[in-house]
Amino acid sequence: MATRAERKRVLVFPGDDASPEAVIPSVRLLESMNLPLEFQFPKLDLAELKQGILPSTTKTAIDQADAVLFGAASSTALPILFYLRWGLETYANVRPVRFIPGTKSPLRNPERIDYVIVRENLEGLYPGREGDLSLLRERLPEITDQAGQKLRDVSDGKFAIRVITEKRTRRLAEFAVELALERKRQGYEGRISCFTKSNMLRQSDGLFQAVTESVVQRHSALKYDHFIVDDGARRLVQSPEQFDVIITSNLYGDILSDVGAATIGGLGLAPSGCYGEQKAYFEPVHGTAPDLAGKHIINPTATLLSAAMMLTHLHLQGEALNLEKAVRAVYQAGNVLPVDQWGKVSTEEFLRAVRDHLG
């Protein structure tokens, strides 16, 4: 066992609404595994956070941590989330979509589902560059759409600017290549599928597609294909077995990962990790579930699987596999299931069952 000096530090932010009811007991389970990790719950200045201010002490604690386990944000935790993503440049949002036998997928043959979405995490529409159309008309009066209509002739309304850059797309594609190569070593096909709307967004999505293709095709061990995003979404439901690693931009990735989660049984089963050049943080795909707050029935599976991704990142692959196997064993047994999987047990009861299955 590692000494205290060798132990790595994991910062835990439970999040808002029902999120802490999944995160806190999940961390207690992780602590029971005797990992060479020190879990810390930083003291937060709620007054500053509610004003949208990230205290310098919180920022420093994040900078000094080896990894961050994050719940979900809707209000108070948003400044933390913004720093974790844009402050730390965690550009690759990895969202595995893998069926667990025993969960309640709506599909007839869900065992076919086992792929990963790699979503660009920093640009696209999500930084929220929006405003009044009058400002855009003033600056770009002659710009036209594909039908030839000039912006100056468009009625009043709002605009949103979607930015796709070559630098960030190339960095994401290189990340996806490394992930696909690693999965190939594990027995997967070694295929990268790029999802865009380049038939309509010929410049921005066209750039994303072209850069991705140029990066992937330098690696002869990998296969590559491209799909228009609406066709790709259909295929995720109809023929998910054709996918291995999917690379796409911010908005598409967010939507498609929810589609994927629905096919395996719901958002309560969907983990994610956000990776940068130096730092990474891990969070469930689901939101804060305010309707479940105080009920202690939120499904902690997504949090546990996000924690398993974190363990792998911290070079604790055996422990990560042990945790994943324990989760899968509980679902396979079928007698201790969360409410969203048609069961009746509390969050804590489910976690006790997972602990009982740990090797």
If you had to describe this structure to a student in words, what would you say it looks like?
The protein has 359 residues and is an alpha/beta fold. It folds into 2 domains: 1-104 and 272-359, 3-Layer(aba) Sandwich (Isopropylmalate Dehydrogenase), CATH 3.40.718; 105-127 and 163-264, Isopropylmalate Dehydrogenase, CATH 3.40.718.10. Helices cover 40% and strands 16% of the residues. It contains 12 helices and 12 strands. The protein has helices at residues 19-31, 46-50, 56-64, 78-87, 133-139, 166-185, 204-216, 229-238, 250-264, 301-313, 317-333, 347-357; strands at residues 8-13, 37-40, 67-70, 92-98, 114-120, 130-132, 158-160, 191-196, 223-228, 245-248, 273-275, 280-282. It has a 10-stranded mixed sheet with strand order 2-1-3-12-11-4-5-10-8-9, with helices on both faces. It has a two-stranded antiparallel ribbon with strand order 6-7. α8 runs parallel beside α9, α10 packs antiparallel against α11 and α11 crosses α12. The longest helix has 20 residues, at 166-185. The protein is globular, with a radius of gyration of 21 Å. It starts with 7 loop residues before the first strand and ends with a helix.
